[in-house]
Write a structure and sequence with these properties.
Elements (H helix, E strand, L loop, with lengths): L2 H4 L16 E9 L6 H7 L5 H10 L17 H13 E9 L6 E5 L2 E2 L9
Antiparallel strand pairs: 1-2, 2-3, 3-4
Length: about 120
């Protein structure tokens, strides 16, 4: 699961008012090379919750992103490459996503998060 995906997921359990961002529990991280596309990154920047991305990348062992970012940084090739690596090349292969409010764990196996809810959680 890419951090791009993580940045768009939240816990939709019944009664949860703040299910974002899901906390990451890491068992295995893999890096998969993806072609660098600065235009895609510039378009995605406004859609990404930066703090959630920066925190998640640190949890997955990548501490190169700044705590805060703004659009002016998109002119830097160095920044774009770090953003690209965190957003698209880091993959949570095995682990879990945890609801920040309830502690409910959603397993991630072979890079696929299982966000299915039990009947009593809907």
């Amino acid at each position: 699961m890419r951090l791009l995906t993580h940045n768009m997921l939240s816990s939709n359990m019944k009664g949860v008012s703040n299910g974002f961002p899901l906390r990451i529990e890491v068992e295995k991280v893999v890096e998969k090379q993806v072609d660098f596309n600065p235009d895609f990154l510039k378009n995605m920047f406004s859609k990404v919750h930066w703090k959630a991305l920066a925190d998640a990348s640190r949890i997955m062992g990548y501490a190169e992103l700044p705590e805060e970012a703004d659009r002016s940084m998109l002119d830097s090739d160095d920044f774009l490459r770090k953003f690209h690596h965190a957003l698209l090349e880091l993959h949570l292969e095995e682990g879990a996503l945890v609801c920040p409010e309830t502690g409910r764990r959603f397993p991630v196996n072979k890079g696929i998060p299982n966000m299915l809810l039990h009947e009593d959680e809907v």
